[in-house]
Amino acid sequence: MRVFNFAAGPAALPLEVLEQVGAELTDWQSGGMSVMEISHRSKAFIAVAEEAESDLRDLLAIPASYKVLFLQGGASGQFAAIPLNLAAADSTVDYVNTGNWSKKALTEAKRYCAQVNVVADAAADGYNSVPDESLWKRSGNAAYLHYTPNETIGGVAFPHIPQSDAVPLVADYSSSILSGPLDVSRFGLIYAGAQKNIGPSGLCVVIVREDLLGKARTITPSIWDYRQMAADGSMSNTPPTFSWYMAGLVFKWLKRQGGLAAMGARNLDKAEALYAAIDGSGFYRNPVRPNCRSIMNVPFTLLKPELDKAFLAAAKEAGLTNLEGHRSVGGMRASIYNAMPPEGVAALISFMQEFERRHG
Ligand SMILES: *Cc1c(COP(=O)(O)O)cnc(C)c1O
User: Fold this and answer.
1) Looking at 172, 224, 244, 270, which residue is catalytic?
2) What does the pLDDT read at residue 1?
3) Mutation test of ligand 1: which of 97, 101, 177 has the most ligand atoms closer than 8 Å to its C-beta?
């Protein structure tokens, strides 16, 4: 029996995709082997890789002037690769700090850049909002401006894309890529670890504007040199073939769902229903400012934290799993990525209401 899995990442994958993987696992394309057991340089795998890229380009309407890279090392690897590719050691780089992941990104950047300028820090508000853009203290000469559109742990999302005219905008879309339509042309670089909304872990997708290639420092690991990887079709070395293949199946599934406009509407409905249940309860609480609430990660606390363990145990019993909040914040968190069907959110809401009736 499948449960409704609210894990933040690695996260639930679409059942249809898992069933296809299962059906073709041992004998893929009648070759008598699994896709994991063939060369990444074989014709068959190159076709898988190219089709995945082309489907992702369709879904996000990625302009031809952008390269799409399928890299390893996760989003955390990009925390280092970005300054190494886009900034010199004596460059100034701008970062917005809206929580746990942006903090990690800027901390890593400090190893590679003399000047990491934090343009705004949401600490004063307990990281429950996005600081007003008109108050950001941007440096005049930044190599790029980095931000985290969706803070996976705090459940804080930017209500819109920041303005950044000449300075390339760099965004960590790990937990919100493909959650709805996105204007890629606003960005210099978008990156996303796969294990939330793309596929299994082991893969990090980087979408980078061509004019930003070729600036890597000589010490940059060649597997993270964007120009090199673009030239090699992301195959300077062996890529994570199985993750890439599965990401491709997820892209096809998204297309069958109606693409990102349809997914965006469905995700908004799911999130609105869950926030309405939380706000309407008096028993559950979400601390994030309403205009900055994530539609992918919904943290909430119980009025009586002594009931946390009972809540989690009863939820698990009801087939609703992985609802515990991140170890750094406690409480609960429901991650409701693309693969979480509306019925899963409806089941969670019913469960929460029933739990409140019994314990409220
Ligand atoms: C999960 C996550 C990361 C870390 O991803 P790894 O692939 O584990 O390095 C970074 N940023 C955000 C926003 C995330 O959600």
Assistant:
1) 172
2) 86
3) 101
